[in-house]
Amino acid sequence: MDINQLIEFSGNHSLLVMALFAILALLAADTIRRRLSGIADVEPREATRLINTENAVMLDMRSEEEFHKGHIANAIHLDTPQNISSKLEKLRGKPVIVYCNTGNRSVGVCGKLHKQGFEPVYNLKGGIAAWQKAELPVARKS
C-alpha cells in the first residue's frame, strides 16, 4: 500500500480514521493515567514472590459468591470499596495486591488505597483469571 492509497482511503472513510485515532488516544490516556497513579500491575508469578518474600496481602474485590467459588489463599474479601481504609488499617506499610475477576475493577480500588496512604499497592494483572491460567492454587470456602 503506498501513501496515495492511504490518503485516498482516509478521504473515503473519514469516520473510520477518526474512530481509530479516538481509540488510540483513549488507550494512550489510560496508559498514562495508570503510570502517573503510582499503581503498578503485577503478574501472578510476581505476586507470589511478593507474598512469599514481603508478606504481601491479597485483597479480593469480587462478590461473596465468587469468593466462595475460589479465591487466592489467605485473601481478605471486601466486595464493596466503601470504608476500605478503616477495615485495612492494620495493613499499612505492607504491600497490598488487589484483584477481581480480570483486573479491571480492582484498579479503582488500588487508586483509593493509594490516595488513603497505603504503599505499595499493586493490581493483579488479569485478576484471578490470570492466576488460574498460571496454574497457581485457589482455595475454596465451603
Could you explain how this protein is built, in words?
With 142 residues, the protein is of the alpha/beta class. It has two domains: 3-34; 39-133, Rhodanese-like domain (Oxidized Rhodanese, domain 1, 3-Layer(aba) Sandwich), CATH 3.40.250.10. 51% of the residues lie in helices and 12% in strands. It has seven helices and five strands; from the N terminus they run ααβαβαβαβαβα. The protein has helices at residues 3-12, 14-36, 44-54, 64-69, 84-87, 105-115, 127-133; strands spanning 40-42, 57-60, 76-77, 96-99, 121-124. It has a five-stranded parallel β-sheet with strand order 1-5-4-2-3. β2, α4 and β3 form a beta-alpha-beta unit. The termini are far apart.
The CATH architecture designation of the largest domain is 3-Layer(aba) Sandwich
Strand content: 5-15%
Instruction: Indicate the percent of residues in helices.
Output: 40-55%
Structural class: alpha/beta
Q: What's the domain count?
A: 2
- The CATH superfamily name of the largest domain is Rhodanese-like domain
Shape: elongated
| CATH classification class of the largest domain | Alpha Beta
- Please count the beta strands (DSSP E, at least 2 residues each): 5
Largest sheet: 5 strands, parallel
Low-confidence stretches: none
| H and E string | HHEHEHEHEHEH
Main β-sheet, spatial strand arrangement: 1-5-4-2-3
* Average pLDDT for all residues: 88
Distance between the termini: 60 Å
Radius of gyration: 20 Å
CATH names the topology of the largest domain as Oxidized Rhodanese, domain 1
Count of runs of 4 or more consecutive helical residues: 7
